[in-house]
Structures are given as structure tokens and as C-alpha cells.
Amino acid sequence: MYPSRFHYEAPRSLDEAFGVLQAYGDEAKILAGGQSLIPLIKLRFAAPACIVDINNIPGLDFHEEDSDGSLNIGALCRHRTLERSPLLRSKYPTMSATAPLIADPMVRNRGTLVGSVCHADPQGDWASVMLAMGGEIIARRADGSERAIPVSQFVVGPFQNALAQGEIAVRARVPAARGTRTGTYLKLERRVGDFATVGLAVALEVSGGTINRAGLALTGVGPNNIQCTAAEQSLAGKSLNASTIEQAARLAAEAAQPKTDVRGSAEYKRHVVYTFVTRALSNRQASAA
Amino acid sequence: MAQALDEIKIGGLGSSRKRVEDDRFLRGKGNYTDDFKLPGMVHMEILRSPLAHARIKSIDTSKAWQIPGVHMVLTGEMAAQHNLAWMPTLSYDTQAVLATDKVRFQGQEIACVCADDPYIAKDGCEAIVVEYEPLPPIVNPWQSQAEGAPIIRDDKEGQTDNICYRWEVGDREGTERAFAQADLVSKLELHYPRSHPSPIECCGSIADYNSATAKLTVYMTTQAPHIIRAAVAIVAELPEHMIRIISPDIGGGFGNKVPVYPGYVCSILCSILLARPVKWIEDKTGNLISTHYARDIYYKGELALRKDGKILAVRFHCDSDNGAFFSDAQPTKFKIGLIHSAFAAYDIPYGYMTAQGAYTNKAPGGVAYRCSFRVTEAMFFQERAIQAAASDLGMDQAAFRRLNLVKDDQFPFRTPYGFLLDSGQFHKCLDVALNAIGYDDFLREKEAARAQGRRLGIGISTMTEPLGAGNSREYDILGIKMFDAAELRVHPSGKAILKIGSQTQGQGHETTFAQIVTHELGIPAADILVQHGDTDNTPFGMGTYASRSTPVAGAATAMVARKVRAKARKLAAHLLEVSEEDVEWELGRFHVRGAPSNGVSIQECAMAAYGNMPDGMEPGLENNAYYDPPNMTWPFAAYIVTVEVDPETGVWDVLRMVAVDDCGVRINPMIVEGQIMGGMTEAYAMANMQFITYDAEGNCVGSNYMDYLLPTAWETPGFELHEVVTPSPHHPIGAKGIGECAAVGGPAAFVNAVMNAVDDTGVRNIDMPLLPDRVWEAMKYKRDVSGAPPVKSDS
Ligand SMILES: Cc1cc2nc3c(=O)[nH]c(=O)nc-3n(C[C@H](O)[C@H](O)[C@H](O)COP(=O)(O)OP(=O)(O)OC[C@H]3O[C@@H](n4cnc5c(N)ncnc54)[C@H](O)[C@@H]3O)c2cc1C
Question: What is the tens place of the pLDDT at every residue in B234-288?
Fold first, then answer.
């Protein structure tokens, strides 16, 4: 790997990091897990003047529930930690289904959920999960102030996020559930470690068989991760049966904006969305590879 | 009486001794080309074309020269001053070393930069400004032959079209007559997609020209160091004895490291110009987009059938897409390798085939990717056509094969395309495979599952292939006949060193070739060092590819060991004070006929060769042997795969995979099994995911490992291996090639299984790779899915 020349900073605190960001302006790039940034600089598609490695900043590697029941995931919490988390396994089925489907063990050892959402790759899996769960990104400024940006507004385009210059995404947040969480993540990939041909995040909050809140989002079938708002609304307040499932599947397939490419035709991908929603909601295991 | 040696215990024939190579590889103590660092060495990087087809208007290197640490910026124009802008290919064409007039494929070499480190060299490449005039790109044979298509090879005098060769073989009239008598003609058209051998270690070289001695030493990633030495002598016009090619540990070759690449030539020229060692290490994208691809053939063929299932004749046509330069690595006589070995396993009286090659704006190649010169392409078409014919006849897949496979009493058997099969038990192999998979039970299971809406399928592939070129009558490369040599020296203490001209890249020659010597001499394998990969210190050999090492260099090894044994016999007679005729050989020991306890070991003979030879005998115990094989070796394989296809998504899973291989005598059964599993993994890859294609602009899709998919341990199915042993009648120890069988015969088994699972849809063919969307499309629309570049795209 022979990237262009760059300056490297490894701040030991957020304050130091903000200092470096200020000095370099839009020439600085934050390095979290590096699993998206390093491939880019390797190919010289990106040539930032300064790389700000945040890995030495304490207090960012956590994931825990707040007293209000919301889940917070720090900027250095790795995919691997989420994959093995007992907390996610017991209470966040969509997230614990997603983590092992991301990339391969080596990438999961380094890559972060927050970094993935910041990267805003339309084929990134976490942004769909965050959309489905109504998650947000907490951005922090040099003066210590923070703002919460819903992921639906955070991802503004392919590889573009809503962070202002000088802001650092310090954590992601998932609000408390109304009821019990059920759901899953289904992913059609050509090979383990592949990005999704089609990915589907389903996150339901259910009490007594009634869906209080439904979250459905798609990966790989549009210029961004797609929140299936119509399908979500069609399920809210209802219970799952053949006709509500069919309707949600149809609406989700309509929401997809797939393109024909080397991974398959637009028609095929739309069909897989339909099949996946049907399978996820009727609790049938997908036999997707 | 001395205890007889246990051949397995001392690591002889049939011993699954552990690979001696693995110690250094597993401990990180191997030495690959990139591990060598020479004093004063500079680093070379290559600037590649972003466009598939364009005229070069200008190349401005001035900014690159200005970068501190840059020592050389080499362009085609400068190379031309040394007569090196172009080089000959192994198919009697020419290939640009550095483009001067046009670029003809994306990734083509335009210039290179030598600098203090690779970062600076890369910066230098980025600083070169090239002005292009884009030309229409051609990405398949049909475009290349369309009216008004631009001539890609306008550098070649007299070239007025985009055709690089035409070839035919067989009996045209006889075949026509047979077709006229057919009850049924079964037709099939398909495409074997382009793929890339993709060794994990990319190509690279360190050229070290010593201006004082005028000796050129090149460390490089080559599967064929001796041929490279000859090629360098020709291309660079250097005296051959002043060229030393060192091929150190190699991180996989699979055919990709047979050819001469521009990068090697540039590193040599830069070293001569700079009088410093020049290191070039290719990156993954450079390897995938510019070095030799494999396959990329369109077939159209038909079988003439009698009602009862007998095949009367076969004819087919191949359109090969050869990329920008016709540079297949293949024996001189053949233009599309040994593709006419297709159907060799079947008793078919008449056959005729034609082939035509197209220049396109794609990477050159046509290398034998884990196969013996396009036999993979041959066997894939064969087994797909056999399945289609059985279906057309309404006959069972196994029964149709049983009826037509060559029978044990038919050897030697001449195929309609001229090959001579010499041995095999084809029916036995098929039966072992059918039994292992539980054929009849599975067919019943399939019917039952179908009634529940599930799709199961079973696919068979049976094939024999010619491995181990040559014989020298028919096989040469660049005029050099395809034999191999071995040198064996036994030291006074009875330890030995074997030097061979072949070149291991993972096959385990250092392990198995010692075992051949052990079998012949009884010297424990652990006492034998196998050396290869240095042209100054090993005898001539054509290299390791096309499964030829054991058939040719392995045979030379057995023969040289026998020569050494013959001399040892004289020494034994001297030591035992009897005449030579009264000395009898047992493994590792001579004894006096009729008095088995009165003997001497091979080690004692070795000592005598240095310290107690009879009067008049030349001292020492060593010899060499050149081996010119009388025929190819013909392994046979029967592969059966069962799958389940998800009717909703087209995703398919392998349920079971049974492989029955007959590669003759197995020198090291463990290594043989490893070779079969490796080959089968690549077969699965080909059927399932692995291909390179190009979009309409000629951009390579598959230029990195996120796009060019190699299967991991996660998706690769388990393989159940079985063996049948029919020794080769002419190989000194009865061995046949095995390194490639599974990669050659395997793909059709997977594809046939999926096709069998959708056999109620009327679909005749889905082209590889059988990605889920293609299988789904075939099921949904009940139509064939032919994947040919350019990639479909609606963006
Ligand atoms: C082989 C391979 C396979 C992969 N497969 C998948 C897959 O199947 N699914 C999937 O979803 N992903 C996949 N990925 C991507 C992987 O998940 C990345 O880890 C992830 O997208 C980015 O996280 P990171 O921490 O590595 O971010 P980095 O690479 O460090 O950063 C990515 C971008 O986000 C910015 N950034 C990172 N952190 C912050 C922050 N705290 N504040 C502000 N900006 C920030 C960086 O500046 C950079 O622009 C794959 C990656 C590889 C190399």
C-alpha cells in the first residue's frame, strides 16, 4: 500500500482532536477503524493532508444502555464487540443479527458502527439498522456542545454525511423501545465479506401481538440506505398476519430503487426485497448465502 | 538377515509424509521475491492506462523527473531505442512492453518510474501526463468482427481485421456423414467466462545487472525459470550464460506466472540503464487487470446421436477472446491449446472442430489456469454437452455416460481428434462415484422434494485429460522441446541432493520428488534435499504448469535415480566381492544372490564411491537424466455434486460433492488429496462466483478482491474423496498428473447439478458463474441466461 504523503496525528483527547481538526480544516480526515478510509487512501481515491487517528482517545469504546433505556454506542465500539455483546443478543435482535454479517472477522475487529454510518456507503449495513431503529448520531463541537442528528437526516447522499466541519461523531444512540424488540437483518451476498446485493433491516417494537413501532430499511438498493416509510406505517398498530405481511413486502419492494449491475438486475433485487420482507416478518429463515 | 526397509516409514512411494516446505512457510521463514533486498536497490512502479482503447498523443514525463528521489522514468519511446518497446509472445505474436502508439486495454503499461522507495515511484507515475485520443473499445468477439470495427492491431503489417488465428482439427467429411445418419442432433451454445488465476502473491522481479561482470541476475516470480532465461536472451539480446534466473519461494502461480510480462522486461532494462538493482512488485489490481487471464471462450457445438443413446459424432466451434495481444502460453502446434482433447473419454468415431481467435480491448492471455493448455475449457463444454444430449434423449445421465465412455478393453484408444489414450477404468470410477453419492436414492429424494416445492439437483462430470506435455515430437515452446531433466548427487554419507528443472509454487515438489528417489534408492526422504528455481544451479526444465512436473520431471527423477543405482550396483559387487550379476537389489540394499544376509546398504555404496571404488572406476555417485515422455498421462475423474436451489432467490447450496480420481500411482496421498481439494475449490468458485468481465467502455470489472470473488472457507463445500488406481503404462513409477483434474472437471459437475434442479423449466443453459440472479431469471422466465460482456447496466 503506497498512499500519497500525509501528515499523521494521534490526539489523546477530544480537545486535542478538535485542535487538529481546526488547524487542517477540510484537509483533515478522522480515522476510526480505518476499514473504509484506508482502502480509499490505498487506491489514492482519497488523499487527505492530515489523518486524525482517534483510536487513542479514551472513553469512546463502549456500548451501554442509559437510565432512560436508550442504547449508546461509542465512536470506537467495534463491529466485533457488537457481534459478541450479550446485551445486544438479549435485547437488540436486529443489531445482533447484523454484526456477524458485516465483512469478515479481520474487518470486524477494527471497523466501527459510528465510522460505518459516517462513511455513508449505500451498501453499509449499519445505517439501515440505525434507520430501522430510529437511531441518531451525536455530533460534538470544539466548544463541547453536542447535537443529535437522526440517521435519516445524517446520511445526506452517497458517501456524504451531515457533519459540519470540525464536528466529531462521538456516539450513536438508539431510543428506548416501546414494547419488546423483535426483528432481524437479512443479507444476500455473493460471498462472505461481500457487500450486500440486498440487505434488509427489520426492527419491530411489539406489545401483546400489536406492533407499536415498525422499522424497515434497505441496503444496497438505492443511492442511500432506504427507510421504507410506507411499509412501516402500514404495520404500525397492526399485528402480523398474511395480509399485513404481504402489504408490507409490497410497499418495501416499491420503496427500493435498485439498479441493474454486476450483482443482478433491478427486477431481481426488488424481488429479493419482497422475499426478504416476507421471510423476516413471517420468521422464516432466509437461505441467503 | 537385515530387516527389510519399510518404504512408507522412510518416506517413499505412498507415504503421506508432511510437506517439508511447510516448516518455513508456517514460521514466516520463506523467501519470496519481495523479501530480497539488494544493496543500492531502487523501486519501480508502472503507470497503467485508464482507458481501454486510445491513441497516445503525448507523454510528458518532465514533472516526474523533477521529483527528488526519482532515478528513471522509462517510456516506450526510450525502450524502443533498445529495441524493447515490443516483445514476442509465446504464441508468435508481439506484445507492447510500454505503449508507444496506442493503448489497447485498460491497465496496459505506459511508463515506469524507478525511485528510492515505492511511494516516490508512485508519486512519479502520478506526475506523468498522458494525452489520449479515445477510440471505440471492443469488449467481445462479436464487436471485434462487426463491420467497421476499428483495427486493434494496426501496429501489425497486413493485419486488416481483428482475427488473431484460425484453427481446425478432425475429420470434417466423416463427421458430416455421421451427422447425416443421426436420429437426433443435440445442440448447445455457451460461454466460459473470463477468469484470472489470481495467485495471492502478485508478479514481481528484482533485476540486478552487474555492469562490471556483465552478468544479469533476476529474482522473479516465475513458474518456468529456464524458459524465461531463454526468452530473456532472445528479447534482451543478452548471452544466455550471463543470465541467471532465480525463482525463490512462489506464492502461487496457477499458470499466471508462466509468461514474460512487461514489468519483468522493464525492471531488466532499468537495471541495465541505471546499473543498479531494480525491484518491481506488482499490486493486486495490476495483477488482476494486466497479467494473463484464462478462459473467455464462446462455444457452439452439437452431438450426433442414435436413438439408443450412442454418440456417432461431435463437432463444435470456439470463438476465443484473446485480448489485445495473442499471447497464450501454449505449445507451438496448437492455437487454442489442447481444447481438442474434448470428448476424449467417450468412444466417438468422428469429430471435427474449428476455432477462431479475436483481438479485443481486454487484457491479453489465455493462460492455462490450473490446466493443461485449455483442457478446462474442453472438459467443461464436453460435460455440459453430454448432459444436454442425455436430456434430449430422455436418458439417464449416468446410463448415457456408461454407454459411451471408453471401455477398459479399448486401450490404447485413438480419439477422433488424434490423441492416444493409454489406460483407465472409466466405468469403475463412475460406479464408485454413483455408489458413494447414493445415486438412485437421491433421484427418489429429488422427486419427493419437488412435490413439496423444493428443488434438488444432481450433476455428474466424467473426464480424462492429457497431462504432462510433451512428447518432443509434438510439443515445443518457442522451438524448445518439452522434456525435463534431473540431477542426483549422493554424498559420501549417503545423503543426497536432487536438482530439478521444474518449479514448485505450492505443489510440494521438495517433498514428493524426494519420495521418488526414496522409492528408487531406499535413501530416507529426510536425507534428500530437493533444489530447484535457480538456472545456474539446476538442470534444464520446461517449468511447472499443465500438470507436467510429476509426469515429466518426476519421471526424469526416477530415471536418474536408476542410473545412480546402476552405478551403486557395481560398487556393491566390488564391496561384496561378487560379480554384478550376482548382486540383487532390495529397497536400500544390495545383497548376494541366494545369501540375503550378506549385503551392503546404499549408504555403504555411496561411501565406497568416494573412498573405496574399484580400480578404473570414475569416483563419485551422481548422474543426470533428460526425460522425453512417450505420451501424455491420462488421469480420469468422476465428480458428482448434489445441490438445493432456493426457488425464491436462486441461491444454491451444495449438499454433497463426491470426487473419484484415478491419477495412477499416488506418490504422497496427502498431497494428492490437497491438490484435489484445491482444484475443487476453484471449480466451485468458477461455477459460483469467480469471473472477470468488462463494461461497455472496456473497464475491467474484477480489478480487486471485493469485485473478483474468491471463495473462502465459509462457502466452500466439503469434498468426499475416493480413489481408483490405474498406473500409467509408460511413466516409470506409474504416476499421472493430478494437480489440475478437479479444477478441470469440477465446474461442469456443479453447473450440471443446478441445471438438473431446474430441469422442468426447459432451460438448456445458464452461463457461469451461476450467481443467484441468473438462476432466478432462468427459473422465472424459463429461458437460458447467457452472460456475456458488456455487463448489463441501466445507469
Ligand atoms: C473487506 C471489507 C469488507 C467490508 N464489508 C462490509 C460489509 O459487508 N458491510 C458493511 O456495512 N461494511 C463493510 N465494510 C466496511 C466496514 O464496515 C468499515 O469498518 C466501516 O464502513 C467504516 O468504519 P471504520 O471505523 O472502519 O471507519 P473509517 O474507515 O476509519 O472511516 C470511514 C469514514 O468515516 C469518517 N469517520 C469515522 N469515524 C468518524 C467519527 N467518529 N466522526 C466523524 N467522522 C468519522 C472517516 O473520516 C472516514 O471518512 C467492509 C470493509 C472492508 C475493508
Answer: 888 899 999 999 999 999 999 999 999 999 999 999 999 999 999 999 999 999 9
Verify whether the Cβ–Cβ distance B712 to A286 is below 8 Å.
no
CA trace torsion A244, A245, A250, A252 (10° rounding): 110
Q: Return d(Cα B500, Cα B529) in angstroms, integer.
A: 11
Say whether both A44 and A68 belong to one domain: no
Residue B265 and residue B235 in contact, taking contact as beta carbons nearer than 8 Å? yes
Closest-CA residue in chain B for A194? B706
CB B597 within 8 A of CB B428: no
According to DSSP, the residues that pair with B186 across neighbouring strands are B303
Q: Are A167 and A184 found together in one domain?
A: no
A119: pLDDT strictly greater than 60: yes
Pairing status of strand B278-281 against strand B42-48: parallel
In this structure, the answer to whether residues A252 and A169 fall within a common structural domain is no
Q: What is the per-residue DSSP string for B400-465?
A: HHHHHBPPGGG-SEE-TTS-EE----HHHHHHHHHHHHTHHHHHHHHHHHHHTT-EEEEEEEEEE-
Residue B795 has a pLDDT of 42
Cβ neighbors of B556 (< 8 A, separation 6 or more) are: B483, B484, B485, B486, B500, B625, B626, B627
Question: Do residues A90 and A158 both lie within one domain?
Answer: yes
pLDDT given at position B2: 65
Residue B791: band (very low, low, confident or very high) from pLDDT cuts 50, 70, 90: low
- Specify if A267 maps to a domain: yes
Residue for grid cell 449495513: A125
Tell me: the pLDDT tens digits for B402-449? 999 999 999 999 999 999 999 999 999 999 999 999 999 999 999 999
Q: What is the tens place of the pLDDT at every residue in A265-277? A: 999 999 999 999 9
pLDDT of residue A285: 42
Q: What would the pLDDT profile of B162-202 be if each residue is shown by its tens digit?
A: 999 999 999 999 999 999 999 999 999 999 999 999 999 99
Question: What residues contact B133, with CB distance under 8 A and at least 6 apart?
Answer: B54, B55, B57
Q: A116 C-alpha to center of ligand 1: Å?
A: 4
Domains of chain B: 22-30+484-627 (3.30.365.10), 33-135+202-250+257-290 (3.90.1170.50), 294-469+631-781 (3.30.365.10)
In whole angstroms, how large is the CA radius of gyration of chain B? 28
* Range in A191-205, B224-238, B561-575, B742-756 with the lowest mean pLDDT: B224-238
Q: What's the domain count of chain A?
A: 3
Rg (C-alpha) for chain A, rounded Å, is 19
Within this chain, do residues A114 and A130 fall inside the same structural domain, yes or no?
A: yes
Residue A58 is assigned to a structural domain of this protein = no
| Beta-sheet pairing, B311-321 with B184-195 | unpaired
How far apart are alpha carbons B135 and B139 in whole angstroms?
Answer: 13
Give the Cα separation of B751 and B778 in Å (integer).
13
> How many Å lie between the alpha carbon of B713 and the closest alpha carbon of chain A?
9
Atom of ligand 1 nearest to the CA of B705: 1
A43 falls within a domain: yes
Residue A204 belongs to domain spanning: 180-288
Looking up residue A142, the CATH number of its domain turns out to be 3.30.465.10
Q: Is B781 an 8 Å CB contact of chain A?
A: no
Largest CA distance in chain A: 59
Domain contains A109: yes
CA distance B120 to B69: 7
Same domain, residue pair A169 and A192 = no
Q: How many CB pairs under 8 A join A and B?
A: 82
Give the span between the Cα atoms of B218 and B261, in whole angstroms. Answer: 13
| Whole-structure pTM value | 0.96
Q: How far is the CA of A112 from the centre of ligand 1 (A)?
A: 6
CB of residue A73 inside a 6 A radius of ligand 1: no
What are the beta bridge partners of residue B528?
B496
pLDDT at residue A287 greater than cutoff 50: no
